[in-house]
Design goal:
It is a single chain. By secondary structure, the protein is of the alpha/beta class. It has 2 domains: 159 residues, Quinone Oxidoreductase, Chain A, domain 1, CATH 3.90.180; 135 residues, 3-Layer(aba) Sandwich (Rossmann fold), CATH 3.40.50. 23% of the residues lie in helices and 26% in strands. The strands form 3 sheets. Strands 3, 4, 5, 6, 7, 14 and 15 form a 7-stranded mixed sheet that branches. The protein is globular.
C-alpha cells in the first residue's frame, strides 16, 4: 500500500509498504479521504513545536500527522464487536503520533477509535469528525452551563474549528452568531454557513462592539478558536458572561480588573460522546463539514496542499490516497 512520510521540514515521500493486519481489538480501514489538520501540518513543516514541551523528530512517523480520515472497515481483528466489514467509519480519535497515521491507503485503528458515519454524504462531510468531536466537547460543556441557547455568541477564527463552532452554536439555539476573521474569503464562508455577520477584528469599531466595562457589550458568550493572545483579548474585552478557550494556548492571557464577572472555561479533551454528538448533527443536517474543504488533491501532492494552507488559500485540503 501507499503511505506518506514527512522526512524533514518541507520534505516528504510516498512509499510502498506491506498491508498492515489488525490485531486484537483493532480494525483496518480502507481510507477514502483524509483532511489536513492545519495546525499539525504547518507546525511539522517548520519544526515548530505544537505546544510547550513538545518537539518533532524526523523522519516523522509514517502516515502522520494525518488523523482526520473516513473510509470503510476492510478487516477486523479478534475480539471486535459492533463493527462489520464494509461499515463506513471515520476516525474520531488519533491513537497518537507514534503510530502510523492516515496519510495512507489503509490504516489500522483501535475499534474504539472509529465511529460509524452516514453513508449518504460526501467523504469531505465526514472526514473531519475528529475536529468536530473536539469542538463538540466545548459546546456540550457550554450547553450544560446554559450559555448558548438564546445568547449572542461570538467566535474568533473562521478556520476549520471556527466554522464548526458557528454551526454548533446555531444547532444549540444561539439567538445570534457573530464571526471574526481578518481573511475576507473566510468571512464569506462563515456567513454562508449561518453566521449572522462576520467582521474583520482589526477593523471593528467600539460602536459596533462596545468594550468592557460598558454594560452594552453585544456578546453574551464567546469561543476563541485561534489561541493567540490578541484574539483572546479581543473577546475578553467584548464578552459579558462566558468565554470558552478552544485555541491552543502558547502565551499568557491577562485577566484584568475590567474583566470582572467574565467566566473563562477551557477544553476538556477527547470524548466519544462528543463524536456521537457531531455525527448526530451531521445526520440531522445541522452540521456540514464539506465546505471546510476547499481543495482536493492526490496524496502525492501533499506539499502543494500544505503550501495552500500556509498561504491561507485553503481552509482544509482533502487528500485522496487512491488517485
Amino acid at each position: 500500500m501507499k503511505i506518506l512520510q514527512v522526512t524533514a521540514p518541507k520534505e516528504f515521500r510516498v512509499m510502498e509498504v506491506p498491508l498492515p493486519e489488525p490485531g486484537p481489538g483493532q480494525v483496518r480501514m480502507r481510507i477514502e479521504a483524509v483532511t489536513t489538520c492545519p495546525q499539525w501540518d504547518l507546525h511539522l513543516r517548520h519544526n515548530d513545536p505544537m505546544f510547550i514541551g513538545h518537539q518533532f523528530k524526523y523522519p516523522y512517523t509514517m502516515g502522520q500527522p494525518g488523523h482526520e480520515a473516513t473510509g470503510f472497515v476492510d478487516a477486523i481483528g479478534p475480539g471486535v464487536t459492533g463493527l462489520a466489514v464494509g461499515d463506513r467509519v471515520s476516525a474520531w480519535r488519533d491513537a497518537g503520533h507514534d503510530r502510523p497515521g492516515c496519510y495512507a491507503q489503509f490504516v489500522v485503528h483501535l475499534a474504539d477509535n472509529v465511529i460509524r458515519v452516514p453513508a449518504n454524504v460526501s467523504p469531505e462531510a465526514v472526514a473531519p469528525i475528529e475536529l468536530a468531536m473536539c469542538v463538540a466537547t466545548v459546546f456540550r460543556m457550554m450547553r450544560d452551563m446554559g450559555v448558548v441557547r438564546g445568547r449572542r455568541v461570538g467566535i474568533t477564527g473562521m478556520g476549520p474549528a471556527g466554522l464548526i463552532a458557528l454551526q454548533m452554536a446555531r444547532a444549540e439555539g444561539a439567538a445570534s452568531v457573530f464571526g471574526f476573521d481578518p481573511v475576507e474569503e473566510r468571512r464569506v464562508v462563515a456567513v454562508g454557513l449561518g453566521a449572522d455577520a462576520c467582521f474583520d477584528p482589526t477593523a471593528v469599531s467600539e460602536a459596533e462592539f462596545p468594550l468592557r466595562p460598558s454594560g452594552s457589550c453585544r456578546l453574551d458568550s464567546a469561543v476563541d478558536c485561534v489561541g493567540a493572545r490578541s484574539s483572546v483579548a479581543f473577546l475578553m474585552d467584548r464578552t459579558i458572561d462566558t468565554l470558552a478557550l478552544f485555541g491552543v494556548q502558547r502565551e499568557d492571557y491577562t485577566y484584568a480588573p475590567r474583566h470582572g464577572g467574565l467566566r473563562l472555561c477551557g477544553y476538556k479533551g477527547h470524548f466519544r460522546a462528543s463524536a456521537e454528538y457531531a455525527v448526530e448533527l451531521i445526520a440531522a443536517g445541522k452540521l456540514n463539514l464539506a465546505p471546510l474543504v476547499t481543495h482536493r488533491l492526490p496524496l502525492s501532492r501533499y506539499g502543494e496542499g500544505v503550501d495552500l494552507l500556509e498561504a491561507r488559500k485553503a481552509i482544509k485540503v482533502c487528500f485522496l490516497p487512491w488517485e
